[in-house]
Write a structure and sequence with these properties.
The protein is α/β, with parallel strands linked by helices. The chain has a single domain, classed as Rossmann fold (3-Layer(aba) Sandwich). It has helices at about 15-20, 35-50, 60-75, 100-105, 105-115, 125-145, 160-170; strands at about 5-10, 55-60, 80, 150-160, 190-195, 200-205. Strands 3-2-4-1-5-6 form a 6-stranded mixed β-sheet, with helices on both faces. Helix 2 (about 35-50) runs parallel beside helix 3 (about 60-75), helix 4 (about 100-105) packs across helix 5 and helix 6 (about 125-145) packs across helix 7. The longest helix has 20 residues, at about 125-145.
């Protein structure tokens, strides 16, 4: 590889369950009116900063796809979907508030708060499992850029926990490692640069356009 590669990770716009403080995981409550406005504002601003991405990838979850759609309408690059970019699976906790989870599963909530990496809900994932699949998905995006020889720019639309976990990986923090990083805001950008065999976190949770601050408790 002769050129550098830039990878931008974008969190989706505000969803209904973000507002209500509910675990969302791989279910979808849809973008709110504010979330749709955020996506449009983000697209207008980010298409000026990155008008010619080489590739655009997205999770297949509707709240993420709908956020990505506003950007690709402006830059004219097709979206490639990858379900491995989905938010962490929280199983049957999807739709619960933190208070619901504390009432039904107090031991698990207490253990998680103490730092244990335990799957939430029946069929849910651990953070380590989520990190492994997200890092693999980003690796596939990087492979696409590397095949170009001159490097290039990728924009990836995903959710909050994948961004935190990917940043922890890039920083060399042992898995899962995300707890030292705040939850990304809706429609914020986190940027990695890869060159000469090195990876760098250039920025984290950068607000391109006005966004609602993320609730630290919520699963994106």
């Amino acid at each position: 590889m002769s050129g550098q590669m830039i990878v931008h990770l974008v969190r989706h716009g505000e969803s209904l369950w973000n507002v209500e403080g509910r675990y969302q995981g791989q279910q979808d409550s849809g973008l709110t009116e504010d979330g749709r406005a955020q996506a449009a504002q983000f697209a207008a601003a980010f298409s000026r900063e990155v008008p010619h991405p080489d590739v655009v990838f997205s999770s297949d979850l509707p709240r993420v796809r709908d956020t990505a759609a506003k950007y690709v309408e402006r830059v004219g690059v097709p979206v490639r979907e990858d379900e491995a970019l989905r938010e962490m699976n929280v199983g049957d906790w999807a739709g619960m508030t933190l208070e619901d989870a504390e009432e039904k599963y107090p031991e698990i909530v207490t253990a998680v708060a103490a730092g244990a990496d335990i799957a939430r809900g029946v069929g849910g994932e651990t953070f380590a499992q989520t990190r492994e699949r997200v890092v693999s998905a980003i690796g596939r995006v990087v492979d696409v850029l590397e095949s170009r020889e001159e490097g290039g720019i990728a924009v990836i639309f995903t959710s909050g926990n994948p961004i935190r976990l990917a940043a922890a990986h890039m920083l060399g923090i042992p898995s899962p490692g995300h707890m030292v990083l705040g939850a990304p805001d809706n429609c914020s950008v986190t940027t990695f640069r890869l060159r000469d065999g090195r990876s760098e976190v250039v920025r984290y949770n950068h607000d391109i356009a006005q966004a609602r601050p993320a609730d630290q408790r919520e699963i994106s």
